[in-house]
Design goal:
The complex is a heterodimer of chains A (198) and B (63).
Chain A lengths: L12 H10 L2 H28 L2 H18 L9 H25 L24 H9 L3 H13 L3 H8 L3 H28 L1
Helix pairs in contact in A: 1-2, 2-3, 2-4, 3-4, 5-8, 6-8, 7-8
Chain B lengths: L7 H5 L5 H11 L3 H27 L5
The chains are: A mainly alpha (198), B mainly alpha (63).
Chain lengths: 198, 63
């Protein structure tokens, strides 16, 4: 029996994947991309909103990132952290957007805003760490840094809300958050290097 | 490193006022260090975000 697909939103992942296998390689790739993008779309839109400050600009940025990701999907390596890959593309699109806006404001050449070194094109090795390794790294933070980091990452509280919850100045929240993230990146990098050596 | 570079984290966290955020976006256009630091922040957010969602998916709904 022929299955007609009208909307991927209305069918479960497994059926969509099965339908994709029955299609041409190009169509299957497009379906795989749509599924991947849809899974992370909410996170991309939320972060784009923080970067852009307005919903309209955020929508434009995500659309730009979506088109770039679709073009680059053939080079996507299985096993890569999908969200980190999409966030890498979102970063490139956002920096380009900032440069275009600066160029328009100043009437300057886009060459004035080229970076001296090439931008990273792939997520760092530590972006492929497992959830367990991330849990371990968070657990290894000192108590005062872990508390601030978790309130911000898990509950999305503002600096002021965290300050009130913990009874510390808001400026201290920013400092502790910064140090917690630096330490986390360092721990994740060590974990990724240990994996490579194993 | 300019004074503007100190605004990276509050920018990422949505703690800057609208005009301050706009100024920082302008700064990002030409500051390689901040563009790279933003990349690091986004990678951590990507890892932590997906992990938080997995944790929520694992946790039973207590409502």
């Amino acid at each position: 029996m022929m299955m007609t697909i009208t909307s991927f939103e209305s069918i479960p992942y497994a059926r969509a994947a099965a339908a994709a296998r029955a299609c041409s390689p190009t169509a299957a790739r497009r379906v795989a991309f749509d599924l991947l993008f849809r899974e992370h779309e909410g996170a991309l839109r939320a972060f784009a909103r923080r970067l852009c400050g307005s919903q309209t600009d955020a929508n434009d940025l995500v659309q730009d990132a979506l088109e770039r990701a679709l073009r680059a999907f053939e080079t996507f390596a299985p096993g890569t952290n999908e969200r980190a890959w999409l966030f890498t593309i979102l970063h490139h699109a956002f920096i380009d957007r900032c440069r275009r806006a600066a160029t328009e404001r100043r009437g300057a050449s886009i060459d004035d805003f080229e970076l001296a070194a090439p931008e990273p094109t792939a997520p760092p090795a530590w972006a492929g760490i497992s959830p367990e390794q991330l849990d371990e790294a968070v657990a290894a933070l000192q108590d005062e840094f872990r508390a601030v980091y978790q309130l911000h990452a898990a509950e999305s509280l503002s600096y002021q809300e965290i300050a009130e919850r913990l009874g510390i100045p808001a400026s201290t929240v920013g400092t502790r958050l910064n140090r917690a993230r630096r330490k986390l990146r360092s721990l994740l990098q060590q974990a990724a290097m240990a994996d490579d050596d194993a | 490193m300019s004074p503007r570079c100190d605004d990276l984290q509050p920018f990422v966290d949505g703690e800057l006022r609208a005009e301050e955020a706009e100024t920082f976006r302008d700064h990002l256009a030409s500051c390689e260090a901040c563009a790279r630091a933003l990349f690091d922040e986004m990678m951590l957010a990507a890892c932590a975000g997906s992990d938080a969602e997995r944790a929520r998916a694992r946790a039973p709904d207590r409502e």
